[in-house]
UniProtKB/TrEMBL annotation:
PANTHER family: ACYL-COA DESATURASE, DESATURASE 1, ISOFORM A-RELATED. Its main location: membrane. Residues 47-269 form the Fatty acid desaturase domain. The chain crosses the membrane at residues 21-39, 45-66, 160-179, 191-216. The lineage of its organism: Bacteria, Pseudomonadati, Pseudomonadota, Gammaproteobacteria, Lysobacterales. Signal peptide: none annotated. This is Acyl-CoA desaturase. It is a multi-pass membrane protein. It is found in: Membrane.
Length: 297
């Protein structure tokens, strides 16, 4: 149970152990059950807006930073911006930036082979969520993220990967309780903002993110004949702010852009362009002409 709080000292082979660690998975399961509390706390337009806003902000942090930045180094930024977005992404209950990048790099190295932890060839349930709860998947392989180990603040986020989510939950409860007293017209409360802003928003965010493992390796079109089963899927791209162009991404993972055509909507790419305009990120890697030419259709 110590590992609910402290994930340090966990360096075992991520492909090593396949059993679900039910005790360690309990907080994650409890987070799903807590969504049922909506029956008691009710709903208000304000609480729904907070839930949607936190979904969008955290999805951007996951796709732009956990994925395109920490896993693939598709652009550059300052240490401060790197940290701020690592914290925002860490509030998504998808563990720390080093864990996420290590597992994702492992996925690209072994996509849809026996060593891929979340290939749909192992079944939908395994690719979608149960891989996340296996004993082996709780570990971070340091050999995969040696480039990030020099940042103690990132190592801390990884070791105490429940700290930021708990802080967000407490903050939402406190803000909701304050608004109940000082802005009664909003018809919200501490418990209501906690349930909508944290539990519901985070659970939906988690399941939307992992559709890229479970559905984007099964449903959609294949522009590139990659060795894996990755697909391009416009619906998943809308849901995940651009990650649904997954066949593009498996063919050329180094780009900060995953929608390769003007009509392939990629909100994360637009967000990164905006951040570049504001001077917050730079050196965004684009898609080379030979990649575009090879996939001309
Ligand atoms: Zn993939
Ligand atoms: Zn990737």
């Amino acid at each position: 149970m110590r590992r609910w709080i402290d994930a340090g000292g966990n360096d075992i082979d991520p492909a090593g152990r396949d059993e679900i660690d039910w005790l360690r998975a309990l907080p994650f399961i409890a987070m799903h059950v807590a969504c049922l509390a909506v029956l008691w706390v009710g709903v208000s337009p304000f609480a729904v807006c907070v839930a949607v806003l936190l979904y969008a902000m955290r999805m951007f942090a996951i796709t732009a930073f956990y994925h395109r930045y920490f896993s693939h180094k598709a652009f550059k930024t300052s240490r401060a911006v790197q940290f701020v977005f690592a914290v925002l992404a860490a509030s998504s209950v998808q563990r720390g930036p080093l864990w996420w990048a290590a597992h994702h790099r492992h996925h690209h190295a072994h996509a849809d082979t026996a060593r891929d932890l979340h290939s749909p060839r192992k079944g939908f349930w395994r690719s979608h969520v149960s891989w996340f709860l296996t004993q082996g998947a709780f570990a971070t392989n340091p050999a995969r993220i040696g480039d990030w180990l020099k940042y103690p603040e990132l190592r801390w986020l990884d070791r105490f990967d429940t700290a930021v989510p708990v802080a967000l939950a407490i903050a939402l409860y406190a803000i909701g309780a304050m608004l109940e007293t000082h802005a009664p017209a909003l018809h919200t409360s501490g418990a209501q903002l906690l349930v909508w802003g944290f539990f519901i928003s985070t659970v939906v965010l988690f399941h939307a993110t992992v559709t890229i493992n479970s559905l984007a390796h099964r449903f959609g079109s294949r522009r590139y004949a990659t060795k894996d089963d990755s697909r391009n899927n416009a619906w998943l791209a809308l849901l995940t702010l651009g990650e649904g162009w997954h066949n593009n991404h498996h063919f050329y993972p180094g780009s900060a852009r995953q929608g390769f055509r003007w009509w392939e909507i990629d909100f994360t790419w637009y967000g990164l362009r905006l951040m570049q305009g504001l001077g917050l990120v730079h050196s965004l890697k684009g898609v080379p002409d030979w990649v575009l030419a090879k996939g001309r259709r």
